[in-house]
């Protein structure tokens, strides 16, 4: 149940961000946002650890800042695989990934605090 709630929260945040970032992020409808959230979950579980290991030297050299680039690449890959989701460039993907991860982290943290009380 927790996984389903995380997917729904991520989809809602992504769909909302597509309205805020109209110039570079386009999500056609909410079902597309749900599919995007599922694809991002799979990519983050499988592809992201592989990319982190492969780019470990540059990640260490940049004090971890290269992880932002990896997140943007994952967003661009998701745009390639999900019909109805378009990103107009690397910088839009970077901004979208930063905002998506920040907002979902804040929402998940609030949920965890409520559960612990």
Share of residues in helices:
over 70%
Query: Given the helix and strand composition, which structural class is it?
Result: mainly alpha
Q: What Rg, in angstroms, do the CA atoms define?
A: 14 Å
Give the total of beta strands.
Answer: 2
Give a short account of the largest sheet. 2 strands, antiparallel
In order across it, which strands form the biggest sheet?
A: 1-2
Number of helices: 5
| Terminal Cα span | 19 Å
Question: Could you list the spans in which at least 5 consecutive residues all have pLDDT below 50?
Answer: none
Strand content: 5-15%
N-to-C SSE string, H for helix and E for strand: HEHHHEH
Number of domains: 1
**What characteristic shape results from the CA principal axes?**
globular
Q: Please state the average pLDDT score.
A: 93
